[in-house]
# Entry
Amino acid sequence: MELGISMFGDLPVDPTTGKFLSTQRRLQEIIEEIKLMDEVGLDYFGIGEHHRPDYAVPSPQIILAAAASVTKRIKLGSAVSVISSSDPVKLYQNFAMVDLLSGGRAELMAGRGSFIESFPLFGYNLQDYEALFTEKLDLLLAINNNERVTWSGKFRAALDDQEVLPRATNNDLSIWIAVGGTPQSVVRAGKLGLPLMIAIIGGSPAQFKPLFELYRKTYIEHGHDLSKFRVGIHSHALFGDDDQKLSSNYYPLYAAQMDRVGRSRGWPPYQRSQFDFGKSKHGALFIGEPDAMVDKILYMQELFGLTRFAAHMDIGAPAHKDLMKSIEIYGNEIAPKIRAALGGK
# Structure
């Protein structure tokens, strides 16, 4: 099982003014954090795309290109790229360049995204939400599979035997599908034989087991190679060496971010009881001390048959020093025990 980290580039809030702090500083910190992930032997890093004032990264490929120059082994991907409001030709070209710069370590995780700001920003109608994703994914896969592309659709100019360059390493860019829990999206990934990442950020993860079973069933029914079967989860996480201190310091930051998002979606205020349940064995938060996190990650691997676990580590903008500490604990204490328990798998 691959062990990695994802981030959105959450920006800290100045407590005196209520304004978000420097994007420049956060971007520089993220590069330092990715460099440390590589040094401690983690397998994967993913960065999300957002077009909001509380996040620092609208273009994951820019961060990934910078990270390629300071890392040697870690896979570098988006988490996610909002392909519905992107041009698949340019998106493929950008990620192919990251792939070449990194020596074949780039991944593109395609998704709808958890926010809608990119649609009006790039001139798309939300009424076309499903059709946009379907069409853009179709073109992206056609480009990945063919150097010269003939294609036509509703939302983009047609391509007539157009050559799309440069090509990714081995002419094959790794493309994942990210979903939030919709069965139709899981079935699509299974039919296409694409790796699947399921975001589990609340409630009880065990409730998601039918989705994993549906994905595997669909994948097998459509004749895809089980040796290439890849499935993972993305869940909120932060690691420390003192659970009580970690929770006391992190809860206000985490709750504030959940409330910022929740206000636009009609959610009630986030409660400490939700946080505490999330941290329990049966909850979706991976926040705590190393041994407890080893047990919980292994439980999820057994429950779902995971090939990847992504600890989403910057919700609410914990301090850079706390993120660096969390990365060190993950790479030096948690990951070795998980790998040993799984027999190096």
Q: What stands out?
A: The chain has a mean pLDDT of 97. The radius of gyration is 19 Å. The longest helix spans residues 320-341.
